[in-house]
Amino acid sequence: TGGKDRRSGLILTIPLCLEQTSMDELSVTLDYLLSIPSEKCKARGFTVIVDGRKSQWNVVKTVVLMLQNVVPAEVSLVCVVKPDEFWDKKVTHFCFWKEKDRLGFEVILVSANKLTRYIEPCQLTEDFGGTLTYDHMDWLNKRLVFEKFTKESTSLLDELALINNGSDKGTQQERERSIDLNFLPSVDPETVLQTGHELLSELQQRRFNGSDGGVSWSPMDDELLAQPQVMKLLDSLREQYTRYQEVCRQRSKRTQLEEIQQKVMQVVNWLEGPGSEQLRTQWGIGDSIRASQALQQKHEEIESQHSEWFAVYVELNQQIAALLNAGDEEDLVELKALQQQLSDVCYRQASQLEFRQNLLQAALEFHSVAQDLSQQLDGLLGMLCVDVAPADGASIQQTLKLLEEKLKSVDLGLQGLREKGQSLLDQISNQASWAYGKDVTIENKENVDHIQGVMEDMQLRKQRCEDMVDVRRLKMLQMVQLFKCEEDAAQAVEWLSELLDALLKTHIRLGDDAQETKVLLEKHRKFVDVAQSTYDYGRQLLQATVVLCQSLRCTSRSSGDTLPRLNRVWKQFTVTSEERVHRLETAVAFHSTAEKILQECPEQPEAFNDMDQFDEIEAVGKSLLDRLTVPVVYPDGSEQYFGSPSDMASAAEHIREKMKLVSLKKQQLRQPEASTPES
């Protein structure tokens, strides 16, 4: 239990029960328990407590006598705990104290409550009225763990020592054979080490902490002895396990290196054998998009097979790099040589695959551009073969613009075809650089002839289309010019009609005096010059349409009625302009005479003798007023008035006012004449 007597000897408690006790089992148990303490601890002797309170006297007696044979030298005192007054009569027949010399130890019969006379209460368990805390199942479990750990660790140490010692002796082949025979221990070292650490931690925790309830607990001598044993075993295990791990690492590294060498040779042999042979058989570029795509699909299958080996290369390269980083000098040279060999072969093969892929892609792009250009030329030729029948100049311009765009697109397409073709030819010329000595002149010549033939054919087709475009462009430009002349001629008629309309509606003022009227007359002449220019411009445009129609061998659709319209509007404008000029000239004469009369002084004697000018200006004014009420009559019999009736009334009112002033002046001049005879 961990309790000690007053001489510091361990207390051994033997609890007996009502059932039959096997002496053989009890003997084996005592042998085991007495083997646990150290020799130093055994030298202090044992105090044995035989708890016979639940047993019979003959069993107790047998147990006491057995102690003589099992541990006579170590036992110093045997305390037999008796039931209350149950054995008194039987004890007289066998007195243990008389047998002390024969037994070799002292035997006393004592009640449980008087056991403290011989042993301190703190060293007794609760069963005997003491305060010592003891859990037998806990002790048993810990002891079983200790025994198991001791057994497993001892066996493991022997196995590890055999493995480690075998790896340090003999040749490399012998070491490998030894490692192969004893490579795996019977138990997991990690598990044994963990068990030992947990056991040591538990022992140390009980050593320093105490038991449940906070009562101080004196460690058992077997536990004090177990701690150094566990620590020693753990140290030995760690040492041997470290050596074992190094042996395993070396073996694993050697195995890994051999596996890497084997895989490297597999990759190299395949790439330089079947892989290279696959590429040697692929030289064509195809003569169309479909053929190039079929070759690309075949190449993708070849790449797919290579990708599997390249994946192995990547994995091997990572493994070699990891081994190189480990820094084992003895393997560095061999690893670097393997890495270099593998990299050279893989990079060379990858370059060949990439070259072939680029060549096929360039061929596909070349055929794609050639097909697009061929379709553009077909579309342009179809457009040129259709006769032009536009509705107006705008549609011709749009058609011409579309034609130019198509021709420009063809130019760009041909330029792109030449660039793609030249790039493809350059790649083909470099194809022999990785041909592995194979003569590829025949294959290259077929490819070169095909590329050059496609470019020459497209150039000839483009030239024929250009010639047809030039002819079509000239015809369409003439048609554009024809429509433009017709449109401009019609516009000239509209402008002339607008000038006529402006002349009738806005050119109605006759001026307030002679000076203003002369200014209006000058403006009118300039206005007439503009109309004359417009008429002449329209005539020239109509003459040009006749020439263009003869050149295009077509009849104009609008010039036939444009010329009569132009002449009719011009005649109307001429008649209206002449009427405007006549009115302005009459107004100038009227204003000039009126202003002359109104500005003469009454004191001038000649003013009284020239009365005819008053009659003249009155006649001119009446004539002008009459003319304002008369419409303009055109050659076709139609009539038009200048301005609105209110506009004409305003102009006429101004003339009448001036005529009144002149009449008033005339009366003023006559008054002096009438007063002279009277005087």
Please sum up the structure shown.
The chain is mainly alpha-helical and 679 residues long. The protein is built from 18 helices and six strands.
How would you describe what is shown here?
With 679 residues, this protein is mainly alpha-helical. The chain folds into 3 domains: 3-134, 3-Layer(aba) Sandwich (Phosphatidylinositol Transfer Protein Sec14p); 277-477, Methane Monooxygenase Hydroxylase, Chain G, domain 1 (Up-down Bundle), CATH 1.20.58; 507-670, Methane Monooxygenase Hydroxylase, Chain G, domain 1, CATH 1.20.58. The protein contains 18 helices and 6 strands. The chain has helices at 23-34, 39-43, 57-70, 88-91, 100-103, 136-168, 172-181, 189-209, 221-280, 289-326, 329-385, 393-429, 441-505, 514-552, 559-599, 606-609, 612-628, 645-675; strands at 10-15, 46-51, 75-81, 106-110, 632-633, 639-640. A 4-stranded parallel beta sheet has the order 1-2-3-4. Strands 5-6 form a two-stranded antiparallel ribbon. A hairpin with a 5-residue loop joins β5 and β6. The longest helix is centred in the C-terminal third of the chain and has 65 residues, at 441-505. The N and C termini lie far apart (188 Å). The model is unreliable at 210-219 (pLDDT under 50).
